[in-house]
Structure formats: structure tokens, C-alpha cells
Amino acid sequence: MINTEGMGQIAYAEAGEEVEFDDDFPMQSAQVTIGEGVEYTLAAKADEGYKFVKWTKDGEDFSTDAEVKVTLEKDAEMVAVFDVDE
């Protein structure tokens, strides 16, 4: 599962494909079935007035990079965290 906390968008792609955001239909959550050993790129983009803070995996800090590569071996919840840009 990929979700957001705060105001922003997520996008994902299988390894070798380019991550693309769809501004006409912004995605804020997705249930993605990832096969074992398959690498995915997850990307986060903040909405206007917000900033990307971090990714978490199952409630634990994972990365402060807006774009990350993950290979999951079991169910997990990835969350892109956004905060107000002051």
C-alpha cells in the first residue's frame, strides 16, 4: 500500500520504467501488488504550499529522498509525508 500524509501526490513505476505524475488525476493512495524481488521506484511531489518531508515504511522513517527504489519481500505500507511549507 502506498499512501500520503499531508497534501501531495505519489507515483510509482516498475524498475526500468519512468515515474510519471498525472496532474489531471493526482494519486494520493494506491494498492500495488509487487512480486518478490521486483524493484519499484516510488516518487512523491508536494502540492502547492506544501513540502515533501520523508517516506515511512510501516510507520518507521525510511528516506528523506522524494524518489526511492524499493524491493519488498512482504506486505508493507509506504507513506509519503508532506508538511506545510512555511
- Topology as a string of helices (H) and strands (E): EEEEEEEE
Mean pLDDT figure: 91
Gyration radius (Cα, Å) is 12 Å
How many domains? 1
Strand content: over 45%
What's the main sheet like? 5 strands, mixed
Please report the total strand number as a whole number. 8
Across the major sheet, the strand order is: 3-1-8-5-6
Describe the global form: globular
Which bin fits the share of residues in helices?
under 10%
Per DSSP, the total helix count is: 0
CA-CA gap between termini: 29 Å
Outline the low-pLDDT stretches: none
- Estimated structural class: mainly beta
Fold and architecture overview:
The chain has 86 residues and is mainly β. 0% of the residues lie in helices and 52% in strands. The protein has strands at residues 2-5, 8-14, 29-30, 39-46, 50-57, 60-63, 67-71, 78-84. The termini are far apart. The mean pLDDT is 91.
Chain-wise SSE layout:
Blueprint: E1 2-5, E2 8-14, E3 29-30, E4 39-46, E5 50-57, E6 60-63, E7 67-71, E8 78-84
Parallel strand pairs: 1-8
Antiparallel strand pairs: 1-3, 2-4, 4-7, 5-6, 5-8
Overview features:
single chain, 86 residues, mainly beta, 0% helix, five-stranded mixed β-sheet, 8 strands, three-stranded antiparallel β-sheet
Give a brief description.
The protein is mainly β. It is 0% helix and 52% strand. The strands form 2 sheets. A 5-stranded mixed β-sheet has the order 3-1-8-5-6, with no helix packed on it. The chain has a 3-stranded antiparallel β-sheet with strand order 2-4-7, with no helix packed on it.
